[in-house]
Design goal:
single chain, mainly alpha, 23 helices, elongated, Apoptosis inhibitor 5, apoptosis, mRNA binding, API5, ARM-type_fold
Length: 538
């Protein structure tokens, strides 16, 4: 009974101290009252502590000399076991943000509290952090990004907070726009040294949404984005065919770079890395990764400059000869051939006379590199035989596929369960994609038979896995290329630039299956430059 009376008296005393401070015209004359409120935090009275958590922030600005003392008391309050005390202290934190030093400390503490398992407490932390950020964006965000950069245990929670709360209101927070967008860009560049694939995509999508990287930005801005992606792809490292994490990272990064290539950024480092590091060991790469690699290069080839095209073409021809048979066979890896022919056309369009020595063509540009005085007839004979063998194989396979596709609708109608229908429709979709691939191969191989072929350097060909043009054009294999209305894969709902639909599909494919919320992969990767997180493909 005596303890209860003492607790009630302590609470009453705090109310009196608060009333006195509230009514005082010159609060600085009542420093002793404020000190007494702060000191009550050290006691055992729960209600008194909860009241102190309200009063300390309320009068904080009136006693700058006691600022550190008051701040330490608030930090003690958020470590209390009682939820009500913690929440009251959290709500009061934004009132303490009187200068940069205090704001950084508070943001750091609030960031650590994001790990709370109590929904009401976590909601209070979110609101307090956003209030603090609105007061001082720079000094609030810096400690949060520091946790991401350092790889602390709370980094995932902070990344989720940035994604869900901060990034959506960037227009409100980042003012003046150019200065603050540059500031947050620099924070992100430091933070992506050790991230998962999904986390990196999140940060890159945010950067691409900033005005400094917008449609009217100078070419140098897009090159800056490419350099961030190149660093993540580890292009300065020796390619290790056994390092699946690096293969996946390289593939995903170049997918991500595609829309930036369309804005004028250079694809040189990626394409040269493919030619010099990946092609020599292509046979040793796991089969399930080869197609992704070829797709990335095919999608990037329209943006290659002449010099890069000249360096990459020999590698592409080398792979074409490997996968195009010299005579008719039962079947070919049509996906590989489609990618390689598409890449070949776009590269050869930039530097046509390079194909003279590679394929035996007789293309005249008037340059010494035409090499017209040399005999490459055997190359031409071999290449044409491979084209013919490929076409014969594809026509036969296409005929068989066409006959089989006629039965799909009948099979769907006779299916007894939804599961059966779903499986049949999946098989039908796969066959449709295969037919598109066959048609593309024929459309790209036929112009290559002449001594001076016409290389396709525009968008007449849409790769089979990409979103198809909606203009219908009926056709059969061996004739004109089919252009189906849709391939069933809706593009991601993102703000695209350039070939947005292509980019969104490719990035969607690249990050398919990654955990939401920045979950880290269990693998550790190579750890170069501090990078230890797998890219989530586990």
């Amino acid at each position: 009974m005596a303890t209860a009376n003492a607790d009630a008296a302590e609470v009453e005393r705090l109310y009196e101290l608060g009333d006195r401070l509230s009514s005082a015209k010159d609060k600085s004359q009542h420093a002793a009252d404020y000190e007494a409120i702060i000191a009550s935090v050290k006691g055992q009275n729960v209600k008194a502590k909860q009241l102190a958590a309200q009063l300390i922030p309320r009068y904080f600005r009136s006693f700058p000399a006691l600022g550190t003392f008051a701040m330490e008391a608030m930090f003690d309050l958020v470590e209390m076991e009682e939820l009500a005390i913690r929440i009251q202290a959290i709500r009061g934190f934004p009132l303490l943000g009187k200068d940069a030093e205090f704001i950084s400390k508070i943001a750091d503490i609030l960031g650590q509290l994001l790990t709370s398992e109590e929904n009401v407490e976590r909601d209070a932390v979110h609101k307090a952090l956003m209030s603090l950020i609105r007061q001082d964006v720079k000094n609030s965000l810096q400690p949060l990004f520091k946790h991401v950069e350092s790889g602390s245990e709370i980094r995932e929670k902070i990344i989720c907070f940035l994604r869900d709360k901060v990034f959506p209101v960037k227009a409100e927070l980042l003012k003046p726009q150019a200065e603050m967008e540059r500031y947050i860009t620099d924070l992100i560049k430091k933070s992506v040294q050790d991230v998962t694939g999904l986390e990196f995509k999140l940060f890159m999508d945010f950067l691409r949404s900033l005005s400094i990287f917008g449609d009217t930005a100078p070419r140098e801005s897009f090159q800056e984005l490419i350099e961030i992606i190149q660093a993540q792809a580890d292009l300065d490292a020796q390619f290790d065919v056994s390092d699946i994490d690096h293969i996946e990272r390289w593939t995903s990064c170049i997918y991500m770079a595609l829309p930036i290539f369309t804005r004028g950024a250079s694809s040189s480092k990626f394409l040269n890395y493919f030619a010099k590091q990946i092609v020599p060991v292509f046979d040793k790469i796991p089969e399930e990764k080869k197609l992704d690699l070829l797709k990335t290069v095919a999608a990037s080839s329209p943006y290659a400059v002449a010099q890069d095209s000249r360096q990459l073409l020999p590698s592409v021809v080398q792979l074409l000869k490997k996968y195009m048979p010299g005579k008719k066979v039962d079947d070919i890896n049509h996906n590989y051939v489609e990618c390689l022919l598409y890449t070949f056309h776009h590269l050869a369009h930039k530097t046509p006379n390079t194909t003279n020595s590679l394929c035996g063509y007789k293309i005249v540009t008037g340059q010494p590199s035409d090499r017209l005085g040399e005999d490459f007839s055997e190359h031409y004979k071999d290449f044409i035989e491979r084209l013919t063998g490929t076409e014969d194989t594809v026509r036969a396979a296409s005929k068989r596929l066409t006959q089989g596709m006629a039965d799909f609708n009948k099979a769907i109608s006779s299916a007894k369960t939804e599961e059966e229908k779903t499986k049949i429709k999946a098989d039908q979709q796969k066959s449709t994609m295969t037919m598109r691939s066959y048609n593309n191969i024929l459309a790209m191989s036929q112009p290559l038979h002449g001594k001076s072929p016409l290389f396709i350097g525009d968008k007449k060909i849409t790769l089979s896995w990409m979103e198809q043009p909606k203009k219908p054009a009926a056709s059969t294999a061996g004739g004109k290329r089919t252009q189906p209305a849709s391939n069933g894969n809706a593009p991601l709902n993102k703000k695209g630039r350039g070939d947005g639909g292509m980019h969104n599909q490719l990035v969607n494919r690249a990050f398919e299956g990654l955990p939401r919320g920045g979950g880290r992969g269990s693998g550790r990767g190579r750890g170069r430059g501090g990078r230890g997180r797998g890219w989530g493909y586990r």
